[in-house]
Amino acid sequence: MAFEELLEDPVIQKYLHELVGPKGMPVAAAPPDGEVTDEELAEELGLELNDVRRALFILYENDLATYRRLRDEDSGWLTYLWTFQYEKIPEQLQEEMHRLLDGLEERREYERENEFYLCEHCGIRFEFGEAMEFGFECPECGNQVETMENTRLVTAMESRIDELRDELNADVDVEA
User: Fold this and answer.
1) Which Pfam family, any one, appears in the UniProt record (predicted)?
2) Would you list the DSSP string of 81-137?
């Protein structure tokens, strides 16, 4: 996928926005061809230098930008020349989706394997053991805690797990 096509994809735009935030989005959304300094980017985009540097560092941490250092022989100052590398974004999104899938499957099992109680007044949820320790009374308000049905939550998780598996062309979960 070409650089420009990547940036037109709303999923990729959302991913970049999640990484760099609203202040860094102009940096992430308009990467120049070739090398550029942080000062040049700040001036070109009309942004604060610190916001540009923060966005560049986040992109660097996520393997979406690299830099090359040059030392000015007269002053000794270092200049960083940045290059954007967005070719890795689809692979990183897929890895993120796999992490999400694993987390959802783990959470679904936790929800299935535990019995929960809820204080309707405070909205605090307790596992069975916690509820028993408190004598099935909320430690915040003293009200009785009631058995909480989490079937809808588990069903919603299963639905999202199925969607993610379809998107990732992952094997069917044998525990579902």
Assistant:
1) TFIIE_alpha
2) EEEE-GGGHHHHHHHHHHHHHHHHHHHHHHHHH--EEEETTTTEEEEHHHHHHTTTB
